[in-house]
Design a protein that fits this description.
It is a single chain. By secondary structure, the chain is mainly α. About 45% of the residues lie in helices and about 5% in strands. The longest helix has 17 residues. The protein contains seven helices and two strands.
Length: about 150
């Protein structure tokens, strides 16, 4: 392992291009300037390898990068420093993970786009409000009902 390094501009550009300029966690579209090339396994846990391997990095938007930092710094593995644990976490492998900071949890990020979808979202929001629930609670309840009726 070596000290922390500054990533070459071309490396970051190639990483962003490979991910279609999308954040690996929230899937939002950003410019190269906005995205941050993030270590999948926090530097504090595994240090820096001698070779610059694209698979060891992913682009994160500033919001997701801050959320990852907070989650990792408050994870029990922050002190244990077991890289394999990080590789099975949402924050290390958002496309295929077993836990979020050692807690069995799954997340789903949804977006509504365009006039028709936004109108549906507004209906969902009004329904949630009428039922004194959050949109997330309502969606989870609807999905659970659907899964249990099949």
């Amino acid at each position: 392992m070596t000290g922390r390094r500054i990533l070459p501009k071309a490396f970051k550009e190639n990483l962003c291009e490979h991910w279609s300029y999308r954040c690996a966690v929230c899937n939002g579209r950003f410019t190269t300037r906005e995205l941050q090339a993030d270590h999948r396994v926090p530097y504090r846990v595994s240090g820096e390898s001698l070779e610059l391997i694209p698979e060891d990095f992913m682009p994160l938007c500033p919001s997701c990068n801050r959320a990852k930092s907070w989650a990792c710094e408050n994870c029990p593995n922050w002190e244990r420093r077991v890289a394999a644990e990080c590789k099975t976490c949402l924050w290390g492998s958002p496309q295929s993970y077993l836990h979020i900071a050692m807690v069995p949890e799954r997340r789903l990020h949804l977006s509504w786009s365009g006039e028709d979808e936004v109108a549906e979202f507004d209906q969902l929001s009004a329904r949630a409000s009428a039922e004194n629930a959050t949109i997330a609670q309502l969606v989870k309840r609807d999905i659970s009902t659907r899964l249990n009726s099949d």
